[in-house]
Amino acid sequence: xxxxPKIIMPxxxxxxxxxxxxxxxxxxxxxxxxxxxxMRRLGARGRPRSESPKVLLSVRYDADIxxxxxxxxxxxxxxxNDALRDWLKDHQxx
Length: 94
Fold this sequence. Notes:
This protein is 45% helix and 0% strand. The protein is built from four helices and no strands. The chain has a domain at 55-94. The longest helix is centred in the last third of the chain and has 15 residues, at 76-90. The two termini are 49 Å apart.
């Protein structure tokens, strides 16, 4: 069982010192509610849409096949996709 870390809150004096430091920083400012509403979440736009988007699929393969592809490192799913694409060049699915 994992222990939860103990959260130690700053004392009133520490909190005041932190707030003084924030107030003294010329690169920081209080965002108004109006400005906050205008902001977009970072990354909300995401990647541009692909001309050939992938399909999310749940499929089962033999463990040894998956392990062999995983053993090739990052990008193994793309290599598995490429292997299936190569197979389709010479075969017709039943």
